[in-house]
Specification:
Blueprint (H helix, E strand, L loop, with lengths): L1 E2 L6 E2 L13 H6 L52 H19 L3 H18 L6 H30 L2
Antiparallel strand pairs: 1-2
Length: about 160
């Protein structure tokens, strides 16, 4: 097989023109000219890929009888979700919001009751701290809302 001096592709023996780049091989046989832009394939490099010296061996695959061990991956082991903990957080958040809304008793009273109930359910959590703080904040907010209602009622009676 011949190699095209222009593009470096392999050619059949009787080819006069390269089917890849259109180079006239008859001219190169008569007058070999080295062009600064012509491609000359490197000597000693085989045209086909050389197989790797060491074959690839994939790691063994776990079969159904083997169970994966998570002891080396402690971050992948998840504990059972504690929904009561999330309720205690919700009660705490409602308590913080309630401390801002006690000025309007129409908002403060229902919000403090809702927050107190949610925090009370959150007491079933393993971590009761947030639920206790939520109950305290909602209780303070409820007392402030009731006092604000009573104060507004008294002021309303005095104007009549």
């Amino acid at each position: 097989m011949n190699i095209c001096p222009q593009c470096g592709n392999q050619l059949p023996q009787n080819a006069n023109i390269c089917p890849f780049c259109g180079f006239d091989l008859r001219i190169s046989k008569q007058n070999p000219v080295s062009s600064p832009y012509s491609y000359t394939p490197a000597q000693g490099i085989p045209s086909q890929a050389v197989p790797p010296t060491q074959p690839y061996h994939p790691p063994p695959v776990n079969t159904a009888s083997q169970s994966p061990s998570f002891s080396s991956y402690p971050s992948m082991v998840t504990e059972e979700k504690d929904t009561f903990f999330y309720l205690s957080i919700a009660g705490l958040v409602l308590g913080v919001i309630n401390l801002c809304s006690w000025i309007l008793p129409i908002c403060g009273c229902p919000l403090s009751l809702t927050g107190g109930i949610v925090s009370g359910i959150g007491l079933k959590s393993k971590n009761k701290t947030m639920a206790i703080i939520g109950i305290s904040l909602n209780g303070i907010g409820f007392i402030l809302s009731i006092l604000n209602s009573i104060f507004g009622f008294i002021l309303g009676l005095g104007r009549q």
